[in-house]
Amino acid sequence: MSDESRAGGMLDGFHIGQVPDGVGDEVSDFASEWDDVRFASRVWERQVPDGHRADLRVHVLRGDRLADLTALRDFLCAYHERDPVEWRLEEFQHGDGPGLTDGGQAFWLVEPGVAVTVLTVPEFGESLLPTALSVRAESSGSSG
After folding, report:
1. How many angstroms separate the Cα of 34 from the Cα of each of 52, 62, 63, 75, 98?
2. Residue 18 belongs to domain spanning
3. Which 3 state secondary structure label does DSSP give 7?
4. C-alpha to C-alpha distance for 105 and 25, rounded to whole angstroms
5. Number of domains into which the chain is organized
6. Residue 129 located in a structural domain
7. Do the Cβ atoms of 52 and 45 come closer than 8 Å?
8. Is residue 90 in some structural domain?
9. Which residues contact 58 (CB under 8 A, 6 or more apart)?
10. Is position 126 within any domain?
11. I need a surface site. Which of 52, 121, 136, 140 has the fewest CB within 10 A?
12. In the sheet that 9-11 helps form, which strands lie side by side, from edge to edge?
């Protein structure tokens, strides 16, 4: 675990500007792929009596099938095995464009083929949107 990761840090070209106070201090980064979409993930977790609990997860998703917000939503429905009719989502505005949230997850399309999703547990639900809004693409021509 590095101090940069605990504070948020960089993940696959994105700066995580804030991490809610109180999330677990065990931080892991990993890469995976599902249905032709690549995930770069950072997870903040803690030990609990029954094992570990992920308090916060940030994923950068990359794949051609993520063409628009609807395609991203459809992909996440399949990935999370959710019923698309029953998944109640509300729109929110992210600096990179419109996003969707269900109170435990917030996601948005940065550009065709690139998306970000932030997930948290109910204990940190009030921090979900502020945390999601703090995730920004690294600017390539300026510092800070």
Report:
1. 23, 10, 10, 10, 24
2. 3-120
3. helix
4. 20
5. 1
6. no
7. yes
8. yes
9. 11, 14, 16, 41, 42, 116, 117, 118, 131, 135
10. no
11. 140
12. 9-11, 14-16, 135-137
H/E element, 75? helix 69-79
Q: Name which residue leads in pLDDT, 48 or 37.
A: 37
- The b/e string for 75-86 (b: 16+ C-beta within 10 A; e otherwise) is bbeeeeeeeeee
Which of 122, 133, 140 has its CA nearest to residue 96?
133
Token code pair at residue 17: 């500007």
| Residues facing 15 on adjacent strands | 10, 136
CA torsion angle for 37, 56, 134, 137 (degrees, to 10)? -20
Render pLDDT for 86-141 as a digit per residue (tens, 0 to 9): 999 999 999 868 999 999 999 999 999 999 999 999 999 999 999 999 999 987 54
Angle (nearest 5°) at CA 33 between 30 and 39: 50
Structure tokens, 102: 């269900």
Please indicate, yes or no, if residue 74 is contained in any of the structural domains: yes
